[in-house]
Amino acid sequence: MSIDFSGIAVLAQVVESGSFVRAAEALGLSSSGVSRAISRLEARAGVRLLHRTTRHVRPTTEGRDLFASVAPAVSTLRAAAQTLEIYPPRSPADVDQFMRAELTRWRQIARDIGLEGSQ
């Protein structure tokens, strides 16, 4: 199974903010876009990741476990994105090399937690 890394980033933001609306604001998405991303991720994972009510959103056990597994990688990627914003532009080759290394780490994490087939 391939994994949608943007869906994982959305899940992380929802868990951190505790709200689809606040997650949408932080990510620059609509609330319905956040909801669709979570629904797609849940469909691919084959489990419910969030308990939703009209007033609250909280992770299920599976959602909490997934968040705990991916939170360090999400944090690393956020830091990398901030680095790209703070420092002068680098060559496309440097950015490409860094992002490939981070994507390789994400894929390894996904394999380690059973979300991606061995590729």
What does this structure look like?
Strand 1 and strand 2 form a beta hairpin. The protein has one domain (about 5-110): Winged helix-like DNA-binding domain superfamily/Winged helix DNA-binding domain (Arc Repressor Mutant, subunit A), CATH 1.10.10. The longest helix is centred in the middle third of the chain and has 26 residues, at about 60-85. Helix content is about 70%, strand content about 5%. The radius of gyration is 15 Å and the shape is globular. The chain has a two-stranded antiparallel ribbon. With about 120 residues, the chain is mainly α. The mean pLDDT is about 85.
Summarize the structure.
The chain is mostly helical and 119 residues long.
Question: What is the element layout, followed by pairings?
Answer:
Blueprint: H1 5-17, H2 20-27, H3 31-45, E1 50-52, E2 57-59, H4 61-86, H5 92-112
Antiparallel strand pairs: 1-2
Helix pairs in contact: 1-2, 1-3, 1-4, 2-3, 4-5
Any descriptors?
single chain, 119 residues, mainly alpha, Arc Repressor Mutant, subunit A, 5 helices, 2 strands
CATH architecture assignment name: Orthogonal Bundle
**What is the CA-atom radius of gyration, in angstroms?**
15 Å
Mean pLDDT across all amino acids: 84
Please give the number of β-strands.
2
Estimate the global geometry from the Cα principal axes: globular
CATH topology: Arc Repressor Mutant, subunit A
* CATH superfamily membership: Winged helix-like DNA-binding domain superfamily/Winged helix DNA-binding domain
Number of domain modules = 1
Portion of residues within helices: 55-70%
